[in-house]
Amino acid sequence: FEIMFKKVKEVDFADFDNPEFYDTYSRAIRTGVSAGMRAYGDFVSFISSIFTIAALGTIIVLKSPYLIIVILISVILRILISNKRNKNIWKFDKDSEIHRRMYNYVNRIFYQQRYAAEIKTTPISELLIDRCKDAQDNIDKLCLVAIKKNSILSILNSALSFVLEMGGIYLFLGYELFTGSIVVSEFASTLNASTQFSDNFVNLGNFISRLKDNSLYVSYFLDFMDYKPKLETFGKEEIKENDFKELCIDDVTFSYPGNEKNSLENINLNIKKNDKLAIVGLNGAGKTTLIKLLLKFYNPNGGKICYNGQIIKDIKE
User: Fold this and answer.
1) Backbone angles phi, psi at 264, to 5 degrees
2) 279 contacts: CB under 8 Å, gap ≥ 6
3) What are phi and psi of 10, to 5 degrees?
4) Contacts of 146 (CB under 8 A, 6+ apart)
5) Quick one: angle between helices 67-95 and 97-111, nearest 10?
6) pTM of the model
7) Tens-place pLDDT, residues 276-314
8) Edge-to-edge, what's the strand order for the sheet holding 310-311?
9) At what angle do helices 97-111 and 19-27 cross, to 10 degrees?
10) What residues pair up with 311 in beta bridges, in sequence order?
C-alpha cells in the first residue's frame, strides 16, 4: 500500500473528477495488493497439488487404469463450471464498484465529526440517505443476479461431483470388487486415492482459472502504477528563482471538465512580495477554484498565470 499511496501524489487533480479513472483507482486500492497475495497462495497450493496428483495418479493407474477416465471427465466439467462462477463474481465486483463508492462515501460523511454540523443543521442528510439506499439497492440487484447464476452452477457442480464422479467411482470399483479383480483393502485404498486425486485435480484446474481471474484484479494495480500524470510532467523548464518576487494572473478563464459554464472568467491579479491580500466572495464564486489553478491542479482554459515572470504551466514540478 505504501507504493500505491506514494503514486497517488502523482495523480492529476482533474483525474479525480473522471468517474472512469476513479473506478479503476478505487479497484486498484481495494483489490490490487490482495489479489497478488491470493495469487501467491494459489501458486503454493498448485505445487502441492502437482505432487499429490502424480503420486495418487500412479496408484490409480496401477490398480484401475480405466478409473482415470471417469474421474477426468467429471473433473474437467467441474473446472469449467468453477471458471464460469469466478467470472460471474468478477463481473459483479466490477459492475458494483461505482455503487460501492457512493455507499462508502455516504458512510464516511456520517462517521466524521467534521460534517456533523452540516448534517445537524441542513436537510443534506436526507439526500445522502437516499443516495445510500439507491447505492445499496443497486448492489443488491447486481448481487442477486450473480447469486442466481452461481446457485445454478453450484447445484450442477454438486450433481457432477456426487452423481457422475462418486457414482462412477463406486460403480467401477464395486464391479471390480464383485468380479474379484480387487480385494476389499484395495477397494478402500483406491477409493480414497481416487477422491483425493479428484479434489487435487480440481484444485489444479481452479488454479489456472484463478490465475486468470487474479490477473484481472492485479491488472487494476498495474494500470494504476503505469499512470502518467499530464500536468505534473507538462512543463519542461526548471524554476529560475526560488525567491518569490511576483505572482501575476493575466486574463484567466477556467471551466471544470464537462462543465460549459465558466467558474472563473477574465480574472486579473498581480501580487508582489510582502503584499497582503484577502479574497472574499459568496460560495461558488470561484475562490477555491482560483487556488487550485495557482497550485497547478488544473490549467486555465484561457489566459496565463506567471511566477516570477515564468508561466507556471511550463514549469516542471
Assistant:
1) -130, 145
2) 287, 290
3) -90, -10
4) 88, 89, 91, 92
5) 50
6) 0.53
7) 888 888 888 888 889 888 888 888 989 999 988 888 887
8) 264-272, 246-254, 302-307, 310-311
9) 80
10) 306
